[in-house]
Write a structure and sequence with these properties.
The complex is a heterodimer of chains A (253) and B (54). Chain A is mostly helical. Chain A contains six helices and four strands; from the N terminus they run ββαααααββα. In chain A, helix 1 packs antiparallel against helix 6. The N terminus of chain A is likely disordered. Chain B is mainly alpha-helical. The N terminus of chain B is likely disordered. The chains are: A mainly alpha (253), B mainly alpha (54).
Chain lengths: 253, 54
């Protein structure tokens, strides 16, 4: 077994040296295949829309990104609630991982929405209820991540971030219902419990988009969770070492 | 005449479609790469017994 010293931590080069595992490797391969199928159906096989033309193809990445950003927010809210209730570090890290991936997908939703809006509405951005509430969701997620990364005690920053994490849920409800509650330029949901407004290959392409991007989301959350776990282990290790050094110096008892 | 208009509309929307897909696929790729690289770097500093997925 080979060893190397990195900072104050004695590290081992034996065993897996990444956040990957057999499960994530299989998941990654399935995800890449699903993304290939999405490109095939979304950009090549599905027809152009009668009124929107080829810009409808943006829907196959825009709508799944939006739904997965909500999923990330729910994951963060659940993780935050369990952390506040049980003080579980595992759930706190799930919340943290979910928030970062949710922020990424919210950014995708905003950017692809703007790129869809320009050919459809004639403008990239309008301050209507849906777009504004989505932008606020992005700000809330960035706020969560900023607070979570504050240079403070773990318990303090985790607790403060968890409170912000709980606020994500009412915000999602507002984003989701904004097109029903207010008159907006944004269309009403393409998919709902009462059915879909699209059919055939277009519906199948959208379904493919959901499957592929959900797989990406799961893969990302697992890896991001493991990175966060490693960061916390290193921080705890560094703290233990610092306390031991101070004790050796006789500064603290 | 209408065919000419349709072609113009089609060439007008494809750059937006390409940009949207590039943002999503590029963003996912970059984030995945950054996460994996961070994981590899951190894994070398943490003992195997603290990597529960090992």
């Amino acid at each position: 077994m080979t060893t190397e010293t990195v900072g104050s931590v004695e590290a081992s080069a034996s065993g897996p040296t990444s956040t990957g595992s057999r499960t994530t490797m299989v998941l990654g391969i399935v995800t890449l295949i699903a993304l290939g199928v999405l490109v095939l159906f979304g950009l090549i096989l599905s027809p152009a829309d009668e009124s929107q033309g080829d810009s409808v193809r943006i829907m196959y990445v825009h709508v799944p990104s939006a739904i997965l950003s909500y999923a990330g927010c729910f994951l963060t809210a659940i993780g935050s609630a369990v952390f506040l209730w049980r003080k579980s570090q595992w759930w706190e890290l799930v919340a943290y991982a979910g928030a970062e991936v949710a922020a990424l997908f919210t950014a995708f939703t905003l950017i692809t929405g703007m790129l869809w809006g320009r050919p459809t509405w004639g403008v990239y951005w309008v301050w209507d209820a849906r777009l504004t509430s989505e932008a606020l969701l992005m700000l809330l997620l960035l706020g969560y991540l900023a607070v979570r990364r504050l240079a403070a005690d773990y318990e303090v920053r985790a607790k403060r971030a968890a409170i912000i994490g709980l606020l994500l849920v009412p915000n999602i409800v507002i984003v989701r219902q904004s097109v029903q509650w207010w008159r907006t330029l944004h269309q009403t949901p393409t998919l709902s419990l009462s059915g879909a407004e699209i059919q055939g290959l277009m519906l199948f392409s959208l379904f493919t988009g959901f499957v592929a991007i959900t797989l990406v989301f799961i893969w990302m959350v697992i890896h991001r969770f493991r990175v966060a776990w490693l960061e916390e282990q290193l921080e705890a290790e560094g703290l233990d070492t610092a306390i031991a050094e101070r004790r050796a110096e006789g500064v603290i008892s | 005449m209408s065919t000419t208009v349709d072609i113009a509309q089609a060439t007008g929307t494809w750059p937006f479609v390409a940009a949207a897909w590039a943002v999503v696929f590029g963003g996912m790729g970059v984030y995945a790469l950054v996460t994996v690289v961070r994981g590899r770097r951190l894994s070398k500093q943490v003992p195997p017994e603290k990597r529960r997925w090992s």
